[in-house]
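With this grant's support, we have settled on a layout for protein records. An illustrative entry appears below exactly as we store it:
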Amino acid sequence: LAAEIIGTFILVYTVFSATDPKRKARDSHVPVLAPLPIGFSVFMVHLATIPITGTGINPARSFGTAVIYGHKKSWDDHWIFWVGPFIGAFLATAYYKYILQAAAVKALGSFRSQSSIV
C-alpha cells in the first residue's frame, strides 16, 4: 500500500509541477516539455514499484487487468490498487496546493512589500 501511495504521490506532484500555469508565464518552453518529466516520473515509479506491487498508480489500469484476468485471486488484494492511488493523489494535491502554492504566495507577498519600501 505504501508503494502505491508514494508512487501516485510522485506522479501527481510531477503533473502539477510540470503543468503549473504560473510556470508557463515564466518559462515559455514549459508547455512543450511538460510530457517529458511526467513520462520520466511514470518510468521511475514503475522501475521502483514493479517488484513490490506490480505498479498500479492508476485504478483504471488495475481494474482492466483484473477484469481481463478474470480469476477470483486477482480481486483478493485489489483494494490496494484503489486505496493507494487515491490516498497518494489526495496527499500530493494537498501538499502542492496548501503547502507549496501557499508558501509561494506568502513569499511573493513579502517580496512585494519589501520592494515598495525601497
Observations:
- The mean pLDDT is 83.
- Residues 80-117 form the longest helix (38 residues).
- The chain is about 80% helix and 0% strand.
